[in-house]
Amino acid sequence: MIIDCHGHFTTAPKTLHAWRKKQLEGIHSDLIITDDEIRAAVEGGQLKLQKERGGDLTLFSPIAGQMAHHLGNEQTSLVWAEVCNNLIHRVCNLFPDNFVGVCQLPQSPGAPPANCIPELRRCVEELGFVGCNLNPDPSGGYWLGPPLTDPVWYPLYEEMVRLDVPAMVHVSSSCNPCFHGTGAHYINGDTTAFMQFLLADLFKDFPTLRFVIPHGGGAVPYHWGRYRGLSLETRQRPLEPLLDNVFFDTCVYHEPGIRFLTEVIPVDNILFGSEMIGAVRGRDPNTGAYFDDTKRYVDACARLTAEERHKIFESNARRVYPRLDAVLRNRGVDAAADL
Amino acid sequence: MIIDCHGHFTTAPKTLHAWRKKQLEGIHSDLIITDDEIRAAVEGGQLKLQKERGGDLTLFSPIAGQMAHHLGNEQTSLVWAEVCNNLIHRVCNLFPDNFVGVCQLPQSPGAPPANCIPELRRCVEELGFVGCNLNPDPSGGYWLGPPLTDPVWYPLYEEMVRLDVPAMVHVSSSCNPCFHGTGAHYINGDTTAFMQFLLADLFKDFPTLRFVIPHGGGAVPYHWGRYRGLSLETRQRPLEPLLDNVFFDTCVYHEPGIRFLTEVIPVDNILFGSEMIGAVRGRDPNTGAYFDDTKRYVDACARLTAEERHKIFESNARRVYPRLDAVLRNRGVDAAADL
């Protein structure tokens, strides 16, 4: 089974964007999207490519770049998160074999992360979602809040632990002109979050808390020696135990990058992801293949055994997202069915 | 010949730090450092390791983390840059075979970069420096200024072109609690600068302007496919011509990282650098070798031919820093003497 742990509903009907625009202008409007419109948006987008590329199931969440927690106030973010999460829920109900939900949180600059708990609980316990996206910088590129290891985040982490759901650390769009969104802010956010984890004792306090750092972990694997050295120097401890709690996806858009990732990071910590129809939607003129067809790169990675590839494609995701595993077991999909 | 393009005087006498502290407190004091103190600081530090590791010459600049352009005002930064650059000049005069100067610029948040021109000119034309360090974020981790491609930087670039000196894009310390200095802000700065270059037409306006992006280019080589795709999508042009103007050093502190760098980035764009006695000063317990002994990694890189290794160790630096080449030719060191 091929599980893509990183998908956003980037092909959502334009009605959604129009509604958001009005929301930010303070104009009340009703959001009307029919099931047929959802079907068309998915069948012509993520589902089409999932099938073409040989995937089976995608962990599906609202558009990361549109979370834009820096816009409006906390109430704005709460309503917007509900709207987006409900739309994902409808996708998952229409295509239950292909999509399982991951939620957007109603974060807002300066608002206590604890205020996200009700929406997280609703999404997990009522809508059947299996994880959440956590924005380490709700200020949208100015990094005005505390690091992810600050105690202000702890109530939310307690709830994540209680619900047994991981978070993907994922920034949203950047309103800082220095940072291009997907070309700088996304990657910087990944690198920054990892270094915050390295410095702190978060996982002593929450031994079962789990984070997926997307986009191949930002710059982290490439600078693995730097991080090993920094851990030894600043915290007098090896870096490797962090890997009990921190995982990386495969959203690295070229074959050498994926080969390198699998060389440096233990295979147990790598989850297949593509973020397809996301940052880079075109084809590589050198190969004719889509840049974001990361399954090709994993398939081509000769150093991986079948067992290792199975971990990356399926079993790691089921381990990191236990509620996904439960969904699949309920459907009779055993963990190693296709190995 | 082995040229390390990335060295800072991190072992400078403590007197320097005490002087800076007083400066920031607004207390006038005289900075007195003897030649013997400089000799001791260098001979027990960068010179010792340069010799032990088989290097010949280091492009030497003031401590990057201490530039701290966000502290004080423009006048503070100007005086501090002069003090630091003069100290580097003294090192280079005491050890002319081993060190050639690269200067700190008197940047300050909100101040026009054009105001750095007199100090750049003084360092290059009077002190014999061959390049400068350019801080893309003088606000120290808040990124409150314009991108490096904004016209406000153009007068400085005109002077760099006139003097024929490149800049290493190098942030300083971070005063943002989200960003650890060497573990996040440094790497993010590298990634951010590259993406700014990708988006703009800076090198159409300055075809001979050259930047070295340190720390192996931040996250850029690891995400080369992402950047290739982003260039094609956002600018409808291939990424590769950027490499006429942008270069990466080898400050990647593990062997697989260096191997990967040389696999993805053309060898003509890679300059040997170590930033020794910098971010990571310890030894890898797995090998007993220093993490920042990057020469070992380049030496071990079996894919490199002797000619390619020579480019990385010497000839690329001489091409990117023509004034360094002139210094060496004046000394009778021909470009390919040891090939």
Total beta strand runs of chain A: 9
Oligomer: homodimer
SSE run of chain A: EHHHEHHEEHEHEHHEHEHEHHH
By helix and strand content of chain A, what is the structural category? alpha/beta
Cα Rg of chain A: 19 Å
Termini separation of chain A comes to: 8 Å
Q: What percentage of residues of chain A falls in helices of 4 or more residues?
A: 40-55%
Strand adjacency order, main sheet of chain A:
4-5-6-7-8-9
Ranges of chain A where pLDDT stays below 50 over 5 or more residues in a row are: none
Q: β content of chain A, as a range?
A: 5-15%
Number of helices of chain A: 14
Q: Give the overall average pLDDT of chain A.
A: 97
**Largest contact between chains:** A-B, 58 and 58 residues
**Biggest sheet layout of chain A:** 6 strands, parallel
